[in-house]
Amino acid sequence: MAVPSCDNGKGIKAMSEVTFRDFQKLMTKRRRSVDDLVDIFRGKLDDSRSFFERVMSCQSRNPETGRFEDRSDVVIPYKSVIEFYLKERHYLEDSKETANESSATLKKWLSRAANLLGNFAQFSPYGYYTPNRTI
């Protein structure tokens, strides 16, 4: 797993290590395709399509044997890609927190609505507003 950037005691910030596997998992969660990444990094990396295809597949073809080798534990060497990874990870964490808050608010309002409908049931001559206590 990637380690956050930290000060190494000499006033120099150490860059996080992000492996192909880490990057691939996050981009899958964020629903980013190789085409998306190529567009984002256009002009920033040489042969970005080839690089991101290797990263997203976590494999690389060995030219000597012709076989694909697992490259999941290879560390990404590009600072711009690592910074992008950290931004995307932060965005994903923020969106999860927002979703949890929204879910709690929705449950609270549904509970209030169920209680309100339960109060109206006593005034309904036709029984239309039967309270549903399972909410």
Topology:
Layout: E1 6-7, E2 13-14, H1 20-29, H2 34-40, H3 48-57, E3 59-61, E4 68-70, H4 79-121
Antiparallel strand pairs: 1-2, 3-4
Helix pairs in contact: 1-3, 1-4, 2-3
| Helix segment tally | 4
* Global geometry: elongated
SSE order, one letter for each helix or strand: EEHHHEEH
Radius of gyration: 25 Å
Total domains, how many?
1
Averaged pLDDT, please?
78
| Assembly context of the chains | single chain
Which stretches are poorly predicted, pLDDT < 50 over at least 5 residues?
1-13
State the share of residues found in helices, binned by percent: 40-55%
**Distance separating the two termini:** 39 Å
Q: Which features would summarize this protein structure in a list?
A:
elongated; mainly alpha; 52% helix; 4 helices; disordered N terminus; single chain; two-stranded antiparallel sheet; 135 residues; two-stranded antiparallel ribbon; 7% strand
Overview of this protein structure:
The chain has 135 residues and is mainly alpha-helical. The protein has one domain (6-106). 52% of the residues lie in helices and 7% in strands. The chain contains four helices and four strands, in the order E-E-H-H-H-E-E-H. It has helices at residues 20-29, 34-40, 48-57, 79-121, and strands at residues 6-7, 13-14, 59-61, 68-70. Strands 1-2 form a two-stranded antiparallel sheet. Strands 3-4 form a two-stranded antiparallel ribbon. The longest helix is centred in the C-terminal third of the chain and has 43 residues, at 79-121. It is elongated, with a radius of gyration of 25 Å. The two termini are 39 Å apart.
